[in-house]
Design a protein that fits this description.
The protein has about 250 residues and is of the alpha/beta class. It has a single domain, classed as Rossmann fold (3-Layer(aba) Sandwich). The chain has eight helices and seven strands. It has a seven-stranded parallel beta sheet with strand order 3-2-1-4-5-6-7, with helices on both faces. β2, α2 and β3 form a beta-alpha-beta unit.
C-alpha cells in the first residue's frame, strides 16, 4: 500500500499574518504541498515580499497583499487584489492577531479587550463574509482559524486574549454548521507555546516543558503540518473541530 500524500495542487490558500512567526511556515508548507499562496501582511511588507520570492522559487504562484483584517473595506480590497493576481482562494487560514501586553483583569485596558475582539472575532467574521461565498459556489472550501491552548487554560493575565479567542471559537463553530451543506469545512488549530525562528527553547521554558506530557515544546512546523492536513482532501469529513497542537498540554474534553 502506498503512503498518503497531502496534495494541494490546483488550490489557492490565503494566510493572514503570513509573514509572521507561525504564518511564514504555514505558507511554506502549503506551497510544498503544491498550493499557490497569497501572503497577507499588515506592516511587515519586506518580510511578506521576501517570503513570496522564496515561494515562487519553488514553482508555485505567490503574491503579497496588505490589509488591516479588522476593517471591512480592507478585507474586501484584499479579496480584489488576490483575485486579480491569483483568483479566488479555496483555503483561508485566519492567523493574524493583535499583540499586546498581558496583565490582570483589574489592570487590563478596555482597549486591549476591544483589540482582541477585533483581531480574533471580527477578523474571522470578515474573512468568512468576504471569501466563503465563492467557496460555497464552487462546492469546496476550507476555513482554518488559528486559536490557542490559552483558550482552555484561563491563566492569570491572559483574559483579553482568552476572551477574543473564545469568541472566535463560537463564531467558527456556528459557521461550520452554516456552510457545511456546500462542503466548506471550518476547523481550528490551537498551538501551544511553540518554538519558531525567533522564539527559542531555553531554561525559562523548563517549567512549561515539565507540564507537557511529551516533555518538550513543539515547533512552528508542527502547527503548519496540521494546517496543511486540514486544508487537504484527507480532511474532507472533519469540520467544526478545535484541535490542540500542544503535546497534550491541553486536552479538549467531551
Amino acid at each position: 500500500m502506498s503512503g498518503m500524500n497531502i496534495d494541494l495542487h490546483g488550490r489557492l490558500a490565503l494566510v493572514t499574518g503570513g509573514s509572521g512567526q507561525l504564518g511564514r511556515v504555514m505558507c511554506r508548507t502549503l506551497a510544498r504541498c503544491g498550493a499557490d499562496v497569497a501572503v497577507h501582511y499588515h506592516r511587515n511588507r519586506e518580510g511578506a515580499e521576501g517570503l513570496v520570492t522564496e515561494l515562487r522559487a519553488t514553482g508555485v504562484r505567490a503574491h503579497a497583499v496588505q490589509a488591516d483584517v479588522t476593517l471591512p473595506a480592507d478585507v474586501r480590497a484584499m479579496r480584489d487584489a488576490v483575485n486579480a493576481q491569483l483568483g479566488d482562494p479555496d483555503i483561508i487560514v485566519n492567523n493574524a492577531v493583535i499583540q499586546f501586553a498581558w496583565t490582570s483583569v483589574l489592570q487590563q485596558s478596555p482597549h486591549d479587550f476591544e483589540g482582541q475582539f477585533r483581531s480574533s472575532v471580527l477578523h474571522n467574521v470578515l474573512m468568512a463574509q468576504t471569501f466563503v461565498p465563492a467557496m460555497q459556489a464552487r462546492g469546496w472550501g476550507r476555513v482554518i482559524g488559528i486559536n490557542t491552548e490559552c483558550s482552555l487554560q484561563n491563566t492569570p493575565t491572559q483574559a483579553a486574549y482568552v476572551a477574543g479567542k473564545r469568541g472566535m471559537d463560537g463564531v467558527l463553530r456556528v459557521l461550520a454548521r452554516e456552510v457545511g451543506p456546500q462542503q466548506v469545512t471550518v476547523n481550528q488549530v490551537a498551538p501551544g507555546w511553540m518554538i519558531s525562528e525567533d522564539v527559542s527553547d531555553d531554561d525559562t521554558a523548563s517549567a512549561y516543558r515539565e507540564g507537557v506530557p511529551l516533555r518538550r515544546r513543539g515547533t512552528d512546523q508542527d502547527v503548519a503540518n496540521l494546517v496543511a492536513f486540514l486544508a487537504s482532501d484527507l480532511a474532507a469529513f472533519i469540520s467544526g473541530q478545535f484541535i490542540s497542537v500542544s503535546g497534550g498540554n491541553v486536552m479538549p474534553a467531551i
